[in-house]
C-alpha cells in the first residue's frame, strides 16, 4: 500500500519532535508549511529534504493533496488550519489544546462532521505506560469506588515565545494535559468547577501562570488541581504528581516514578491495616506522540475511533474554559461543551 501523504503545518519546537516519528512510521511528508519560511526550510533540510516548503496553507493543500494534515501551529491558529484541512478532504491530527476558545472548537467538530473526516487531538501524555497502569487499576476497581483525585503541578518554566503573552498560559497550554488525564484515569466527565487563577508576584508571564481548581466530576468524584508555571525550585513531574483515592485505598503517582498504593487489609483499628495495592500492568507499546499517531493509523486502516477524537476531546477543553470563566466570575461554573 502506498504510504499516506502528510502535510505538516507549523515548523516550530514541537515539529522537531514529530518529524522523526513520522519518518520512523514510514509516512511520506510531502510538505511543510510555516508563516516563517526559514523555519519550514530548516525542518525540511533536517528531516525530509524531498518535502516542498510553503508559507500559505491553501497553496500547500492544492499542490500536495495530502491524506493527513498534522496541525502543529499555535493554539490561536488551530481552528483556521484544521478547518481548511478538513474542507480540503484531509484527516487531521492536531496538537493540544484543540483551540483557543470553545466556540472555535465547536466549529472544528462541526466541520469534521460535515466533511466526514477524522479530527483527533494529540494528548501525548495519555500514551505513557504509568498513566495506562493508573487507568487500568481504577477501571479494574482495585481502589473500590473512586471518590477523590488530586493533581499538583509546579514548575518554573522560562519559555519565551507565545506562552509568555497568553492570558491563561497555565490553564490553556499546560493544565489541558492534566485535565485530560483526570478524565482518562477516572473515565468520568466534568460537571462543574470553581477556579481561582492568578499570576504570582515576580511572575515573568503576562497572563495568569498559576491556578487552583476544584472540579465536580460525574459519579460524585472531586478532582482538585493546583498548578503553577511560575514556581522556582522543587519541581513536580511535567505529568503532575497524582493522588487517587477510592473506598478501598489510595494510589500515588509522583515524580515520574512507577505508581504505587495501599488498600485496606482489615476491618479494625483506628487506621485500618493496609497491604500494597496491586497496580495493573500496561501492554502499551507505542508511547507519547507515536501512540497518538498509531491511533490515527488504526482509524485509517480499520476504522477504530481514537480515544482523543474531537467529540471526546472537546470535553477536556471545556474544563479549561469553564475554569477560566469561573476565575473571571469568581463563581462555580457548569462545564458544558
Ligand atoms: N504535547 C506536548 O507535550 C506539546 C509540547 C509542546 C507544544 N505543544 C503544542 O504544540 C503547538 C505548537 O507549539 P510549539 O512549541 O511548537 O510552538 P512554536 O511557537 O515553537 O511553533 C509554532 C509554529 O507555528 C507557526 N504558525 C503559527 N500560525 C501558523 C499558521 N496559521 N500557518 C502556518 N504556521 C503557523 C509559527 O510560525 C511557528 O513556527 C501548541 O499547540 C502547543 O501547545 C504540545
Percent of residues in β-strands: 15-25%
Give the number of helices.
Answer: 9
Report the average pLDDT across residues: 97
Please trace the helix and strand order, writing H or E for each element: EHEHEHEHEHEHEHEEEEEEEHHE
Q: In whole angstroms, how far apart are the ends?
A: 39 Å
Q: Tell me, briefly, the overall form.
A: globular
**Strand order, largest beta sheet:** 14-13-12-11-7-10-9-8-15
Task: Tell me what the structure shows.
With 337 residues, the protein is α/β, with parallel strands linked by helices. It folds into two domains: 5-117, Rossmann fold; 126-283 and 317-334, Dihydrodipicolinate Reductase, domain 2 (2-Layer Sandwich), CATH 3.30.360.10. Helix content is 36%, strand content 24%. A hairpin with a 4-residue loop joins strand 9 (210-217) and strand 10. Helix 4 runs parallel beside helix 5 and helix 5 packs antiparallel against helix 9 (310-329). The mean pLDDT is 97. Nicotinamide-adenine-dinucleotide is lined by residues 9-14, 33-36, 39, 57, 72-75, 77, 81, 95-96, 124, 161-162, 173. Residues 9-14, 33-36, 39, 57, 72-75, 77, 81, 95-96, 124, 161-162, 173 line the site of nicotinamide-adenine-dinucleotide.
Mind sketching the topology for me?
Layout lengths: L4 E5 L5 H10 L3 E6 L3 H11 L4 E3 L2 H8 L3 E4 L3 H13 L3 E5 L6 H14 L3 E4 L6 H11 L6 E9 L14 H18 L3 E9 L11 E8 L4 E7 L12 E6 L2 E5 L6 E5 L9 E3 L11 H15 L7 H20 L3 E2 L3
Parallel strand pairs: 1-2, 1-4, 2-3, 4-5, 5-6, 7-10
Antiparallel strand pairs: 7-11, 8-9, 8-15, 9-10, 11-12, 12-13, 13-14
Helix pairs in contact: 4-5, 5-9, 6-7, 7-9
The structure holds nicotinamide-adenine-dinucleotide.
